[in-house]
Amino acid sequence: MHPEPDSWTPPPKEAGEPPADVRRILRLFRPYRGRLAVVVLLVAAASLVSVASPFLLREILDTAIPEGRTGLLSLLALGMVLTAVMNSVFGVLQTLISTTVGQRVMHDLRTAVYARLQRMPLAFFTRTRTGEVQSRIANDIGGMQATVTSTATSLVSNLTAVVATVVAMLALDWRLTAVSLLLLPVFVAISRRVGRERKKITTQRQKQMAAMAATVTESLSVSGILLGRTMGRADSLTASFAAESDRLVDLEVRSSMAGRWRMATIGIVMAAMPAVVYWAAGLALRTGGPAISLGTLVAFVSLQQGLFRPAVSLLSTGVQMQTSLALFQRIFEYLDLPVEISERERPVRLDKILGEVRFEGVGFAYDAAQPRATLDGIDIAVPAGASLAVVGPTGSGKTTLSYLVPRLYDVTSGRVTLDGVDVRDLDFDTLARAVGVVSQETYLFHASVAENLRFAKPDASDEEIVAAARAAQIHDHIMSLPDGYDTLVGERGYRFSGGEKQRLAIARTILRDPPVLILDEATSALDTRTEHAVQQAVDALSAGRTTITIAHRLSTVRDADQIAVLDGGRVAERGSHHELLERNGRYASLLRRDARVAPAAPLLPEAG
């Protein structure tokens, strides 16, 4: 296969396009607008209740206590207690609903990103580090938790509280209100600047977290550990990870400290404002201005303190939202990835699949800028129930050709048909039922043997699983394990040898019983004896169904109905084993090369 670009980069954005559309973020909450309406009502009720307490306090200080009205004093005191109780109850209900909504939004985001990635072509995953994908789902969406669970509610709550408090302050004394709000525009400007700084740093931090996650995923996998230890690079890998972690430390500190002194200055000024109010009230009284009652002054300062808390929180929320935009941008980049392989609007569904496969003028290139296509002008017909073997030197395009049938890639030109229908016109379910692939890259889940086999057919009975394992010549080995079919295979199946894993993969495909089989170097990791046993099982399985075999060992393809020799992405020769031997061309040359590489095997007669 031809090399592809080293890494995935997000698609370019149009000039002037915002990094993360706020309206798009708001649309995430649309399915939950009913519950959010309840939250808004609770927030409004809590804000109204909270501003009532200072007015009750004013009446206590100006009326109930000076006039000795004990009954009124008791009612006003009880009212203050009830406002506190109601405020707490509203707060708990608000937190419950908003947190539930936020978590559901995060669930929707995680699921949407995962579903989008499931639809991406194989080329995307060959260009993208696994740790990068995991980081987007775990770290980026996890980092948005505060925003979607509490920040949005906090914004509404604090904004409502600020508006209600300012109205109440104006009702008490407009002059003191003007003094209190004098510096508010400056504070807003400061918080916006801090938010921009933190957003920039957050983008760098998330990229660094993704890089570190990729390092962990690669170096601490079973393959990574084996490679690191056998190459004596454990200390080097540790030093590399330490360097990645050190860079993350620097970014975390910078993120926490960005604008911290400016925000602290805002806090200091706001904390000093009561003193300014007392000073202004005293100065007005001294200069002959209208007197302000003690109750009004205390109530105003109480409201002012009630204003500063949500105001500071509102400014902090603005900073947090600016920071979160960087995370939303990274998530939206994945959600906006173009799905290159998708179903037609009205796909074709085949109820009965015969299995005829045709390659008609097929061309394929991994990259449009590629100087030479990986495949060019491939014309091969495989009748239903027939077998095709594809051979050729490394890099000739054998595996790529086979991957076009199940649409792991889509052709660049020409078409691949199944029973006369372009595979691009088929629905995914039909294609999945029709084509089974046993790849040279065998993958097993960290689960039991039975669970790995049932991945192909979730409703398979125990008898069907055993029958598939017997056909793949792996049943006896499974039964020799302490837990039989309940044995845990381990991460990526490392408790099994290469040959055992491939036989499990073959059994998994046998269980699916597809009309079309693609065997991509399926026996490449097997010893001669095991290869012979598995080949017998594969031959029995292939009877009556279409089989396309990508072969490394040419001894396994002699009985194929036709053999296609690829060279440089083109069909150099095609015919049966005996026909190609008689031509004494590329195929015969490959056979002689195999004989020289494996002299213990019976040498094939040279044609001509």
Automatic annotation (TrEMBL):
PANTHER family with a match to the protein in the record: ATP-BINDING CASSETTE SUB-FAMILY B MEMBER 10, MITOCHONDRIAL (PTHR43394:SF1), ATP-DEPENDENT PERMEASE MDL1, MITOCHONDRIAL (PTHR43394)
Stored Gene3D superfamilies: ABC transporter type 1, transmembrane domain (1.20.1560.10), P-loop containing nucleotide triphosphate hydrolases (3.40.50.300)
Entry annotated with the keyword Nucleotide-binding: yes
Keywords associated with the record: ATP-binding, Membrane, Nucleotide-binding, Transmembrane, Transmembrane helix
Subcellular location as annotated: Cell membrane
Membrane-spanning residues: 36-57, 72-97, 152-172, 178-195, 264-285
Protein name: ABC transporter ATP-binding protein
